[in-house]
C-alpha cells in the first residue's frame, strides 16, 4: 500500500512540476481522441443512413405485356444468387403507383396515364442481398426473354458503396495517425519530466533504487495524461453530438442523426482505454531510450 501511495504521489507531483507541459500533452491527447471519437460517431451515422437508403435500392425489370407467366419468372429470379426479395407489380398496381406516387404533383402526366393505362407496364422489383450485387442482377435481367427494360440506381448505389468503404478506411487511418501523434507527444512530455529530475534519479540509483521503482511513477504519469485526455475527449464529443442532434435533427429530413446510447458509451470506453494505452506506450518509449533511466 505504501508503494502504491508513493508511485501515485510521485506521478501527481511530476505532473504538478511540469503543469504546462502536461497540459499540452493532455490537450494533444484530447484533440486526437476527440477527432477519433467524432469520426467514429460520424461513421456510424453515415453507415446507418447508408443501410436505410440501401433498403430502398431496387432493380426494376419492366415486363412485356405478352409475357404469359410472370409468376414463374418471379420464382426463377428469386433463386438467383445475390437476390434477397422479388416483388411482382401488376399493371393495375403500377398504374395506381404512377398516378398516386410518381406523378402525384403532375396532373398532365396523370391525365395521360388515365387515358391510356397500357403505357405503364408490369414489372419485377428485385432487392439485392448486398449493394454490390445490383450490377450482376441487372445484367442477367437484360438477357431474360420478356423483359423490356431494366432500371437500377447504378450511380447512387456506387456512391453508397464508396461512402461505406471509404468511411471505414478513413476512420482507421485517422485513428492510427492521431494515435501515433499522441504517443509521440506523451513520450516527449515524459522525456522532459525525466530530464528535469535527472539529479534526483541519479541519487535514487546510488542508494539502490531499482529501475522499475524509478520508472513506474513516470509510466503512471503518462497513463494519467492519456486517461484525462480521453475522458475530456469523450465528454466533449458526447456533448457536441447531443447539441448537434438537438439543433439539426428536427430540421433534417434526409439524414437520420440518431445513434444508440449503447454505441456512444461503448466507443467512449474504448476511446478512454485507448488514451490510457497511448499514455503507457508513450511513457514506455521515452523510458526505454532515456539515458538517465537506462544507466
Kindly state the mean pLDDT as a whole number? 77
Number of domains: 2
**Could you give a short account of the major beta sheet?**
4 strands, antiparallel
| Secondary-structure element string | HHEHEHHEHEHHHHH
Strand content: 5-15%
Tally of extended strands?
4
Radius of gyration: 31 Å
Strand arrangement in the largest pleated sheet: 2-3-1-4
Number of helices: 11
Helix-strand category: alpha+beta
Distance between the termini: 28 Å
Percent in helix = over 70%
Provide the low-confidence segments as ranges. none
**Inertia-based shape:** elongated
Structure write-up:
It is built from eleven helices and four strands. The mean pLDDT is 77. The relative contact order is 0.17. It is elongated, with a radius of gyration of 31 Å. The protein has two domains: 2-53 and 159-294, no CATH class; 58-152, 2-Layer Sandwich (Alpha-Beta Plaits), CATH 3.30.70. Helix 1 crosses helix 9 and helix 2 (19-54) runs antiparallel to helix 7. It has 295 residues and is of the alpha+beta class. It has a four-stranded antiparallel beta sheet. 73% of the residues lie in helices and 8% in strands.
Draw up the topology in text:
Layout: H1 2-17, H2 19-54, E1 59-63, H3 70-78, E2 83-89, H4 91-102, H5 107-115, E3 123-128, H6 134-142, E4 147-152, H7 154-196, H8 198-206, H9 211-248, H10 261-289, H11 291-294
Helix pairs in contact: 1-9, 2-7, 2-9, 2-10, 7-9, 7-10, 9-10
Amino acid at each position: 500500500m505504501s508503494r502504491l501511495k508513493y508511485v501515485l504521489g510521485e506521478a501527481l507531483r511530476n505532473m504538478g512540476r511540469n503543469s504546462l507541459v502536461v497540459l499540452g500533452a493532455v490537450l494533444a491527447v484530447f484533440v486526437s481522441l476527440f477527432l477519433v471519437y467524432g469520426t467514429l460517431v460520424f461513421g456510424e451515422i453515415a453507415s446507418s443512413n447508408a443501410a436505410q437508403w440501401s433498403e430502398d435500392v431496387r432493380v426494376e425489370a419492366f415486363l412485356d405485356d405478352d409475357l404469359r407467366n410472370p409468376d414463374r419468372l418471379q420464382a426463377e429470379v428469386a433463386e438467383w444468387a445475390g437476390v434477397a426479395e422479388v416483388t411482382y407489380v401488376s399493371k393495375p398496381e403500377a398504374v395506381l403507383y404512377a398516378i398516386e406516387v410518381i406523378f402525384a404533383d403532375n396532373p398532365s402526366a396523370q391525365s395521360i396515364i388515365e387515358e391510356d393505362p397500357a403505357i405503364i407496364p408490369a414489372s419485377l422489383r428485385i432487392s439485392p442481398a448486398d449493394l454490390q450485387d445490383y450490377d450482376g442482377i441487372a445484367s442477367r435481367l437484360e438477357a431474360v426473354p420478356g423483359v423490356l427494360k431494366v432500371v437500377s440506381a447504378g450511380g447512387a448505389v456506387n456512391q453508397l458503396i464508396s461512402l461505406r468503404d471509404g468511411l471505414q478506411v478513413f476512420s482507421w487511418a485517422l485513428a492510427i495517425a492521431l494515435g501515433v501523434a499522441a504517443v509521440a507527444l506523451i513520450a516527449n512530455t515524459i522525456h522532459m519530466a525525466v530530464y528535469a529530475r535527472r539529479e534526483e534519479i541519479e541519487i535514487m540509483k546510488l542508494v539502490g533504487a531499482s529501475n522499475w521503482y524509478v520508472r513506474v511513477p513516470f509510466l503512471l504519469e503518462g497513463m494519467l495524461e492519456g486517461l484525462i485526455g480521453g475522458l475530456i475527449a469523450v465528454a466533449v464529443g458526447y456533448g457536441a453530438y447531443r447539441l448537434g442532434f438537438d439543433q439539426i435533427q428536427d430540421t433534417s429530413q434526409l439524414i437520420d442523426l440518431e445513434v444508440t446510447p449503447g454505441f456512444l458509451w461503448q466507443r467512449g470506453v474504448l476511446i478512454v482505454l485507448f488514451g490510457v494505452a497511448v499514455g503507457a506506450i508513450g511513457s514506455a518509449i521515452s523510458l526505454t531510450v532515456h539515458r538517465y533511466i537506462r544507466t
